[in-house]
Amino acid sequence: MPKSIISVERLTKTYANGFEALKGVDLEIAEGEILALLGPNGAGKTTLISIICGIVTPSGGRVLAGGHDVVRDFRETRALIGLVPQELTTDQFETVWNTVSFSRGLHGKKPNPAYIEQVLRDLSLWDKKDFMLRQLSGGMKRRVLIAKALSHEPRVLFLDEPTAGVDVNLRKDMWQVVGRLRESGVTIILTTHYIEEAEEIADRVGVIDGGRLLLVEDKVTLMKKLGAKQLILELSEPLGAIPEALSGYGLRLENEGQALVYDYDGHDQTDRIGPFLQALSAAGISFKDLSTRQNSLEDIFVSLIGERA
Ligand SMILES: Nc1ncnc2c1ncn2[C@@H]1O[C@H](COP(=O)(O)OP(=O)(O)OP(=O)(O)O)[C@@H](O)[C@H]1O
């Protein structure tokens, strides 16, 4: 695995009311990757990223960003990190340009109008630069949040539920921006409820629930591991048992013998379906209809969360 830019070690968080939001999280984030953290409401995703970003103090364990402790060396780590929060809390009467430039200043960076211009152009905000925030649509405000987070040229960008409630166009634009940032070497961590989103954009996927990281895995490996496919045949005549001639296929009967199910590896390139259908025909079995099912990240997620429930 490439060098870690963020190391989370045995991290715990108990809020003042005694609620344990994180129960010992270990996580290494590699430089340049896109990691999606999936989890239901209240899983602890925001708590985890808020600690990494230095907004919430941990109760135990530690987090290193670029080798610096996020509590002790917060100046160094904050310079490294950008956070796109869920909501905009900036002065509504300020202009886009000032808001983003001011944000850069807050991080102690020298002004760089050319850089800010580029960020605003990339986010399709350039023609809105003199608008006050209150004059912007919800989608435009989201873009301002991203521009602010990028204002100080961070190496790691956290996006907390970036596409919750945004329309399809904005979502597409956001992923384009994320793609470009990744190409420029920025490490990206996003939290999401949307499994398709993780499936679409992430290199690795982590699943959080009840304050624990249940799994972190390379997306392709995860999909492969759980990428089993099923071919379902609606039989013309129900079968009482699997015919001897087909015993090598590991078939199952469902729906009182009316459906024959063939499990196969969806990522295996060899043609399994053709020979199987020939064997079926040779055995004198005919069918009315056929369909396939594939495990998605959604199934994986549901089964993981379900196991805990
Ligand atoms: N300041 C606080 N005091 C007490 N409990 C808190 C505090 N902040 C968060 N919590 C609780 O900690 C748990 C985890 O919250 P967190 O915001 O990290 O979850 P999340 O995974 O980001 O959820 P969501 O997807 O809804 O944003 C929740 O049960 C929440 O109520």
Could you characterize the architecture of this molecule?
This protein has 309 residues and is α/β, with parallel strands linked by helices. It has 2 domains: 4-224, Rossmann fold (3-Layer(aba) Sandwich); 227-301, Alpha-Beta Plaits, CATH 3.30.70. The protein is 33% helix and 29% strand. It is built from 10 helices and 14 strands. It has helices at residues 45-52, 74-80, 96-106, 113-122, 138-150, 168-183, 195-201, 219-225, 273-282, 297-308; strands at residues 4-14, 20-30, 34-38, 60-65, 68-69, 81-84, 156-160, 187-192, 204-209, 212-218, 228-235, 252-254, 259-265, 287-294. It has a 6-stranded mixed beta sheet, with helices on both faces. A 4-stranded antiparallel beta sheet has the order 2-1-4-5, with helices on one face. Strand 7 (156-160), helix 6 and strand 8 (187-192) form a beta-alpha-beta unit. The protein starts with a strand and ends with a helix. The model has no long low-confidence stretch (mean pLDDT 88). The structure holds adenosine-5'-triphosphate. Residues 15, 17, 19, 21, 39, 41-47 line the site of adenosine-5'-triphosphate. Keywords: ATP-binding, Nucleotide-binding, Transport. Residues 6-235 form the ABC transporter domain. This is ABC-2 type transport system ATP-binding protein.
How are the secondary structure elements laid out?
Elements: E1 4-14, E2 20-30, E3 34-38, H1 45-52, E4 60-65, E5 68-69, H2 74-80, E6 81-84, H3 96-106, H4 113-122, H5 138-150, E7 156-160, H6 168-183, E8 187-192, H7 195-201, E9 204-209, E10 212-218, H8 219-225, E11 228-235, E12 252-254, E13 259-265, H9 273-282, E14 287-294, H10 297-308
Parallel strand pairs: 3-8, 3-9, 6-7, 7-8
Antiparallel strand pairs: 1-2, 1-4, 4-5, 9-10, 11-13, 11-14, 12-13
Helix pairs in contact: 3-5
